[in-house]
# Entry
Amino acid sequence: MSSNRNKLYFFILISCFIGYIWIFYCYTRGSNGASNDITYCFIKQATNIPCPSCGSTRSVLSLMSGDILEAINYNPLGILSSLVLVVAPFWIFRDLICRKDSFHTAYQKTEFYFKKKVVAIPAIALILANWIWNIYKEL
Amino acid sequence: MDSQKVDMFIMTNGKFFESHQVAQIRDRLISIDDSKWSVLQTLQFKDPTVSIIVSLLGGSLGIDRFIIGDTGMGIGKLLTCGGLGIWTIIDWFLIMGATREKNYEKLQRVL
# Structure
């Protein structure tokens, strides 16, 4: 159990680190006046149709400049991502310092919660709706 | 448990586990009593071949992770466009192992 916890914490910390580097890279690129439309998305490059999370980077960047409405307009999932990026490292460090298990427990609870049909079906519907909105907006 | 039954179980379900786990599973099954046999037979394992196909097709949406029951990682993959596309490629190689790991966890919950 403990090795599972450490693996998860390590993985999430590394992902957050890569996320911050990515955001920093896009931010400096944007402030240098370069166009902000670099894309790494497989689906978008292959089919020219945006994927459900396309626009998250732009959304996080808008949120950083304080424009919440623009952030929601780019992609509401970007707000969720930035929330995870901000909260997760602090939570994990707190757990590591206090030798607690709270983030791991919360993660497992969320997993359990999302496996229930009552939650999973609306969540899938929301993601699909967001995807359709993305295609409509031509992100 | 009867070794013939155990060998039958291993023969039909061996492909769902890592090769190094099979010997452990065999020893463990032989040591438990016959009452678990009916539960064991009803267990449904995820096929690693299916998960690699799903990973190749829907990897950047995290569908492969959702299918094997790794919902948290699936959400992570979905939110990040398949981890900037890198995680998708890494998962093409890892997903079969991850599926077998999940199957092993499922079996351990019953034993």
